[in-house]
Amino acid sequence: MINFKKIIAEKIAKVVDLKTEEIQEYIEIPPNSEMGDYSFPCFKLAKTLKKSPPEIANQIQPKIDCGNEITQIKIVGGYLNFYINSTILVQTVLTEIDQKQEKYGSSDEGNGKNIIVEYSSPNIAKPFHIGHLRNTIIGSSLYKIYQFLGYHTIGINHLGDYGTQFAKLIEGYKRWGTEYPLEENPMEALTQIYVRISDLCKEDETVLEICRENFKKLEEGDSYCMDLWTKFRELSLKEFQKIYDILEVSFDSWKGESFYIDKIPEMEKRLEKAGVITKSEGAKIVDLEDKNLGVCMIRKADGTTIYATRDLAAILYRAEEYDFDKCLYVVAYEQNLHFKQIFEVANYLGIPEKCVKGLEHVRYGMTRLSTGKMSTREGTAIKVDDLLKESISRVKEIIEEKNPAMLNKEEEATKIGIGAIIFNNLCSNIIKDQIFDWDTVLNFNGETGPYIQYVYVRTNSVLEKAGYEPSINDVDFSLLTDSESLKVIFSLYDFQNTLKAVVEKNEPSILARYLISLSQSYSNFYNQNKMITDNKEITNARLYLNKAVGNVLKTGCHLLGIKMPHKM
């Protein structure tokens, strides 16, 4: 693909004393296409040349060789506005889409780099609620996009399968297990037991102490506690897999917290050797007060471990096992301090510096009900399986009303219903909190997942109506240089840069917003132009651009985890 920004930077670099890379960083895209396709702000040279930006623009503009790629350079104040050769742009974009097909936008920039993405990571013995859903959707999307750009990507489901909550469950099951149909509806039964024992712990401190003792027994390998823990884990994984199957989410590793228990001694040994572990009231800690990060506890006074203990052991294991360049933790922003602490402590584990620097917390906002924060303990969490079923059901009602003769209604409703929920989780900056509201999630008008799916279906309908798909050899590129066509072409051209921006910021919403923009540009193009005309050459050109848009929409949605319907 021709990099027009780089070409412009190279042309400017030949007449000023700046490196191409530096100039390229300064080049902007004007807010209005009438002001050019690219713009260079000459005030970046004012300090060096000791002249005003307009003077600089007038001085260097005549010296720049336009070549074949640039049609003209206009001076507006202190800016140089570049207009690129539209025909070359159209040919470049459509030819590469023809060559790469569903791989268009991919690259090999990540070759030789290992990226770990830790996502989903639900707690076993608890329902999979919409807070976990957001984590899963964000992480799965990042996993796919990194992989698409050539990185060796490892997806890890770091299951919450250890900790005091399981000691509570063990105690609750010991007391009331026969009262609940564990085999019939395991997650519902375990949730009810957990809520009940949590309430009892609030009322009676002695029960809480018994639960803590259970956790100590679990860490020591007590057979009764281990058998129950194993049972809870297996039942939970079976239920979680149902959700993952519906979402078509997969992982390369299911190593949860429990996997790292026997790796904790080596981690502690390294911290001891580094001289950073101290004792405080019987507990092992790393004092981070000088970093304004408080104290990172390694072991409680009773010898039991906490999240930080197990996460540090996991960092050590992952550095040695995967030699990662990045290890992304897709976890809610509420855990911000926790990750700052363990990333700081990781400096003392003796792992490669690149691994320490590659630790990144991908923070996302919480999903809340209109009545407040969700809590499994309080019984106020919305379960994902209920959410997905309800979404699909509501879409089916819409289909029955608008297109009762549609074939495969169940299959299409599933794609649209799940796509709506996935897009709703990714369409805005992930750091923002979300208030879960049915009307918002299933609003199919405007900037939504179903809107993108609808535009994709339209591109297919156009080709079906035409009865054929033109070859790239049948396309006269100059026939796609009108303003509406060029807006679509520019959007297609920007696809790979969009994906690069996603991984630079770990922000899938960049891709989601791009797909909306592309859909809107296509809709304007479609509304302004007759797709099938009496002129075969014009028809071929428009049909091919139509086909290219459908190709990129499908690829982009796949990277978000959204499947495309055939009909709507």
CATH architecture of the largest domain: 3-Layer(aba) Sandwich
What do the pLDDT scores average to?
A: 92
Here the CATH topology of the largest domain equals: Rossmann fold
Globally, the shape reads globular
Query: Helix/strand/pairing class, anyone?
Result: alpha/beta
What is the highest CATH level, the class of the largest domain?
Alpha Beta
Low-confidence stretches: none
Count of helices? 22
- The span between the termini is 34 Å
List keywords for this structure.
568 residues; single chain; Isoleucyl-tRNA Synthetase, Domain 1; 3 domains; alpha/beta; Gyrase A, domain 2; Rossmann fold
Overview of this protein structure:
By secondary structure, the chain is α/β, with parallel strands linked by helices. It has 22 helices and 13 strands. It folds into three domains: 4-84, Arginyl tRNA synthetase N-terminal domain (Gyrase A, domain 2); 114-262 and 305-373, Rossmann fold; 409-428 and 439-560, Isoleucyl-tRNA Synthetase, Domain 1 (Orthogonal Bundle). The model has no long low-confidence stretch (mean pLDDT 92).
